Amino acid sequence: MNSSFKKTSARTKALLLGATFLAGGIFSEAHAQTAAAGGEVQEIVVTGFRRSLAESTNAKREATGFQDSIFAEDIGKFPDTNLAESLNRIPGVQLTREITGEGLNIAIRGLGTNFTKILLNGNQIAVASTGRTDAQNQNREVDLDMFPTELFNRLDVNKTPVASMLEGGVSGSVNMRSARPFDNPGRSINYTLQGAYNDNSEKWSPRGSLIVSQTWDTGIGEFGVLAGVAIARNKVLTTGFETIGWTNANLACAGCNTNGGNGFNFATTVPANAGNGLTPGTPVDAAFLTARNPGTSLVQLSDALIPRLGRPAYNKGDRDRDSALISIEYRPSDSLNFYFDTLLGQANRKFERLDMNWVVRNSNFMVPLNVQVDQNNVVTSGTFANSQFFLEYRPYEEDLEFFNLNPGMSWQVNDWIKVDAQLNMSKSKFFREAPTVLVNTPLNTGLTVTYDNTGGNFPSITSNRDLNDPNLGWTWAGGRVNIQNERRVTKTKGAHLDTTFGDDTLNLKIGGAWDRADRSIIALDNSPAWQQAVCGGGGTFQPAPAPQPACDGRAGSAVTQGALASFLRPGPGGFITVDWDAFKQATNYDAFSDAAPFSTSAATGARSGIINEETWGGYAEFNGTSEFRDFVLKYNAGVRYVSTDQKITGPFTPPGGSAATGFQTLGSRYDAYLPSFNASLQMPHNLLFRLAASRTLTRPDPSAMLPGTSFSDPSAQSASQGNPNLTPFKSNNFDAGLEWYTGEEGYVGVVGFQKEVSGFTVQGTNTIPFRQLGVPFEALTAAQQTAINNRGGPDVATVTVTQQVNAGGVLTIRGYELNWVQPLTFLLDGLGFTANYTRIYQSASGAGAPPVAIGVSPYTYNLTGYYEKGPASIRLSWTYNDDQISSTPNQNSVPVAQLRTDARGQLDMSASYEMDWLPTSPRLTLDVINITDEDQRQTFEYPNAAFTYYKPGRAVLLGIRGRF
Fold first, then answer.
1. pLDDT for 589 beyond 70
2. Using CB atoms within 10 A of its CB, is residue 594 exposed (0-12), middle (13-18) or buried (19+)?
3. Quick one: which of 371, 444, 602, 957 could link to 606 by a disulfide (CB 3.0–4.6 Å)?
4. How far is CA 895 from CA 171, 197, 209, 844, in A?
5. What CA–CA distance (Å, rounded) separates 502 from 414?
6. DSSP-based three-state secondary structure for 103
7. How far apart are the C-alpha atoms of 399 and 318, rounded to whole Å?
8. How far apart are alpha carbons 352 and 581 in whole angstroms?
């Protein structure tokens, strides 16, 4: 592991340990005071799920805009492992899950995750992680799996903005409110201890939390301290199937290859040892293909789709997380409050990823036999002689750290002036080691694949050889090894000042904000040097453009061809694996990994670069309440102004160069005015009508702004480059809703909404002076410098730049939400349900706008039934997302092909029983996640063309929870 990251990790561990000791110290004092009071136990304020539902209902009723909230017991008592999973139960919120089943990030109302603004105690944050397996997270996504539910008291999803709210979420914003000592004045001690069983790994993993809070009246004001820790250990195993896309063969015949693709070739003659009754040297021509594939024409065979790298997938490892919260409050008087929140977290994920790949892409050695296709030209069955497989072994290790500091104050100066001020700072660091070992089966040895795609969730790819045999003849020829590490750092800082003039019936709120966000992604790649040492004959490494030796296990290699089998072992997934401990020691892996040099892109395709954003904002906002007979009108109107300066830095590769030689920085600036209006009208019979109109923005994708300049001609007249001048996405929003409050926690609501989103981009050209490219003139070739001087010099000569440019298209999203929370006490005291449904319609007009937003289900719904009475509580919750489009068209050069995600539902259960006659009133808990063992599946355009398939399994959590 990288040494600098180890030092930082040690500091984070020390802070986490300090939080644990602080919690223990408060616990000891609190316990002593409890004993002195004769064993008296103080009841916590939030006592049950029904009460938290009532608080959520009341918060919704009192809100002026469109807002949904979840309160403490609601969060802590759902079988959710992090905040993302809790938010998934709110109408209009859609969850992205890791292949292990754990929730990662969310999307709101028809737009992707990067259009949702995530706030912590009202301040922006960023997490440096890379998202779901094989994702890049180069945009503005925020992974929420770092945030355990136990340390938070309230979540607010704001679907319509107010001027005082930080901008950045076209689809909405989420504010995560961490716990503070005066949330429960006096003494409060809460603990949980759970064992989590995953039925895939068949192992138990511990989880636990301790949150201790104490407030004192000191004579010079009230003082409070809260300290909490939450620890989770998780042993996971996910099996599945992957393809890296689908493709078809390149055939030369009339009418062939009309549907794109053309990702490989069949053998031109029958190879030696092909088996299957084939005669070596026989031409594989049109006559041969027609005779050997009866019922399938040459045209059909040319467009027949099979997986590019069909492979069973095996992922096993540990996902560990430690989190700590320290919050201090001081209240010198009833009108003045100071607070200081500190949130810490670290995660370590260590896992092995094994794939056994059937080699199709770029191949030219297979012979197809008896191939059959369906009406979409997806291959349903066939035999492929002279096939080849390769093992891809990847032992990943990821370390993630996060900390956030948030001091602030609130001062009620007098009856009509209130001042709120906040500072914030957060930093997150991520480092991933991602080595790869790839070895092949030998060609021309009679290996045959029997392919069957006539049923099931993915095709069956069966070899006539034992791929779990280390002595099968595995070879370095065509193989490789890689060291592709990645380091990320995100930082945020902010200062906010808000002043309110007036009272609750009429007030003017004005304020200003300064925010800064920095992000760096640095790829580190030492693959060529390590490969030369491992299988390229060793010796002194010379980087490109010097010739690079092939990976063939020649003499001098750390792992020669003759020794290769000794590093292979039968694997747990039905195919071989690598003895990694022995392999990395024999190949000096650690030294090569620590010395990995800078690279322009990571293994996931994420591009190296740095973005700095500094934003100044100001707003004015009117709030008022008016009463007329039985009607109460609440309204909010305001405008927010923001000005953003951006600096985008990325590597520059000179013309003809083989590697980046330096960095270039480009800058931009933009302003925006964001008006908003919200109103609610309380009417007789417990009816409430809402109306809202607003403009929101989301800043552009940083990865589309990274320079990455390259020239395509010797005269430097044409170049390609990222565009730092991309303008933000903007949306005009309209919302209307009606709610009926039926009593207790119950209400029925319907909301209609519309968003008109602009700011999408297309590939275009701009003609600019050379100097604006940000490329050093002296970095050009002599011929290019001469050509530019002949056109007037670098300040005058123009260059036509191909880059992403803003287009005028508009994506219109219309939809509605239905929400029903209903206690059924008239049937059985303690019985009730919650239900919500969201429907989304999308349409596009103009250039550049996508026909639909990527990764959004047309409809989603949640249904929860609950019973809570006395010591017993049980809840069943079903969450469903309809199928969705997950990519743009033209996947793998097949024009019509888009990736699609199958519809998925998940059933969870939470049950508990309180033993209030025992000390700490312990409550036994049983949570079951994914009761019906639902899978995750994506397809390549057609339902029977599986792109990925994962089986995250079912989890059972058995534990105890108590309080003092």
1. yes
2. middle
3. 602
4. 30, 44, 51, 20
5. 10
6. strand
7. 12
8. 12
Q: Check whether 833 has a pLDDT greater than 80.
A: yes
Residues 283-309 as b/e (b if ≥16 CB within 10 A, e otherwise) read ebeeebbeebbeebebbbbbbbbbbbb
- For β-strands 729-743 and 687-698, DSSP reports them as antiparallel
pLDDT of residue 78: 58
Task: Report the C-alpha gap between 494 and 427 in whole angstroms.
Answer: 12
Torsional class of 370: left (φ above 0), alpha (ψ -120 to 50), beta (otherwise): left
- Specify the pLDDT at position 656: 65
SS3 content of the chain, % helix, strand, coil (to 5): 15, 50, 35
Average pLDDT over residues 788-810: 90
Is the peptide bond preceding residue 545 cis, with omega within 30 degrees of 0? yes
With beta carbons less than 8 A apart as the criterion, state whether 744 and 825 touch.
yes
Collapsing DSSP to helix, strand or coil, 87 comes out as helix
* CA nearest neighbour of 597 among 662, 525, 659: 525
What is the DSSP annotation of 690-714? EEEEEEEEEPPPGGGT----EE-ST
Say how many Å lie between the first and final Cα of the chain, rounded. 42
Evaluate if residue 442 carries a pLDDT over 70: yes
pLDDT digits (tens, 9 = 90+) for 561-572: 999 999 999 999
Residue 29, pLDDT > 50, answer no
Question: Model confidence at 544, in pLDDT bands (50, 70, 90)?
Answer: confident
Sign of CA dihedral 130, 134, 140, 144: negative
- In the 8-state DSSP scheme, what is residue 334? T
Per the DSSP assignment, residues forming a β-bridge with 142 are none
Please, which residues have CB within 8 angstroms of residue 17's CB and are 6 or more apart in sequence? none
* Rounded CA separation 156/224 (Å): 24
What are the pLDDT digits (tens) for 696-722? 999 999 888 988 888 877 788 888 888
Angle at 492 between CA 487 and CA 494, to 5 degrees: 170
Phi, psi of 893 (to 5 degrees): 65, 20
Amino acid of residue 202: E
Per-residue pLDDT band at 51 (split at 50, 70, 90):
confident
Which pLDDT does position 408 carry in this prediction?
Answer: 97
Helices (H), 442-538: 527-535
Q: Are strands 435-440 and 475-502 parallel, antiparallel or unpaired?
A: antiparallel
Spatial distance between the Cα atoms of 692 and 679, rounded to a whole number of angstroms: 6
Chain-centroid distance of CA 740 in Å reads: 36
332-341, 352-361, 650-659, 948-957: least confident range: 650-659
How many Cβ atoms from other residues are within 10 Å of residue 573's Cβ? 18
Q: How confident is the model at residue 830 (pLDDT cuts 50, 70, 90)?
A: very high
- Asked whether the beta carbons of 207 and 235 are under 8 A apart, the reply is no
Residues whose CB falls within 8 Å of the CB of residue 11, separated by 6 or more in sequence, listed in order: none
Handedness of CA 923, 924, 929, 932 (dihedral sign): negative
Q: What is the pLDDT of residue 732?
A: 97
Lowest mean pLDDT, pick from 28-37, 224-233, 456-465, 542-551: 28-37
**Distance between CA 24 and CA 36 in Å, rounded?**
18
pLDDT at 24 over 60: no
**Lowest mean pLDDT: which of 191-195, 504-508, 656-660?**
656-660
Sequence-separated (6 or more) residues with CB below 8 Å from residue 281: 269, 270
Would you list the DSSP string of 756-820? EEE--EEEEEEEEEGGGG---GGGS-HHHHHHHHHTT-TTT-EEEEEEEEE---EEEEEEEEEEE
Residue 4 has pLDDT above 70, yes or no: no
| Amino acid residing at 914 | E
210-228 exposure pattern, b = at least 16 Cβ within 10 A, e = fewer: bbbbbbeeeeebbbbbbbb
**pTM of the entire predicted model:** 0.91
